[in-house]
Amino acid sequence: MGAALFAGGRDGACGGAAQRSRSDEQRAGQSVTNTSPEVSVVVPSYRGVERLPALFDAFAAQLDGAPSFEIIVVVDGVDDGTSALVRAESRLTARSILFPENRGRAAALNAGFDASRGRVLIRCDDDLVVPRGYISAHSTAHSDDGSVGAVGLTRDIHTDGPYTRAYGEDAARRSLAHALSRPPKERWRLWAASCSITRDTWEKIGPYDARYRGYGWEDVDYGYRLHAAEIPIVVVEEALAEHHGPARSARARAVKAFEAGRARTTFRRLHPDAPVGEPSAGHGPWGLAVGASAHLLSARPAVTRGGAFVDRLLPVVPRPLGRKLVALAVEGAGLAGSRIPSTPEGQH
After folding, report:
1. For residue 171, what are the CA distances in angstroms to 65, 66, 297, 302?
2. CB of 268 within 8 A of CB of 224?
3. What is the pLDDT at residue 77?
4. 3-class secondary structure, 198
5. Domain 5-246 -> CATH class
6. pLDDT confidence tier of residue 22, bands split at 50, 70 and 90
7. CA 192 to CA 332: how far, in whole Å?
8. CA 30, CA 91: separation in Å to the nearest integer?
């Protein structure tokens, strides 16, 4: 493993802590002092150069009086111009960390938090657009003496198309409504793309588990560890962000479900006492159909082909049937992924 490369402003450094220029400290209206920012925002990014400008615009538009904050973008193994984009950002106190190879989202988050200086630590994915009160809302959630984990929910933003009309928009609405209705004891399941803790909590709970190398569940794992440590998790509705990176097709959604199913087996192995049930196809005719779908979609190439086949059908079948076809592919792929045994090294 090569060392990560650190760069900030025009005075990037390699290996050790990043050197920071005077212009860096003046960004985002923050005065030049030797004090640390109140908030550190860690943004894990993989091929994110086209997504990050919208996120940076949103951070530059935070309300007057927002706590001081820094942004640390962790470039996970492919520098598609992201490092240069961060260096050129003149409105914000921003720096980047470059991995020479892809290490996964958990490792990226850990590197960002280890390099951070703030009291409040926010994870914010690179495909979000946050509201103007985002930094203030997360900071305020940690203003009391007690430790909490703060979740900012996300709302999927879809582009029009057969998948969106048949499945994407409806699934997004139902997902957000379900998240808002979760009772406190289940909110650990919401730990995902936008969330925050204090540095004290980070030092107590420890880093994200880097055994999650594929898509999903590294975040739920951390939420469960907070829950197991009896740290309450609150939903910060003022931090609701737009998610501009949802799946755009049945193929993409089914592949995500398959990979998340694989990650679920890792979670169940690491946390056998967690209240996460055994994956099941369900009962009745639909359960039989999902079980058959899982049998057909037992490997990722089959999931890709199956999802693509559904995409070809969506423009020509009635919308209710299209919704069922996508759901069948997604649920079958998720079940198939969960049947792949987890190894002590985690998923790869």
Report:
1. 36, 34, 21, 23
2. no
3. 87
4. strand
5. alpha beta
6. very low
7. 23
8. 10
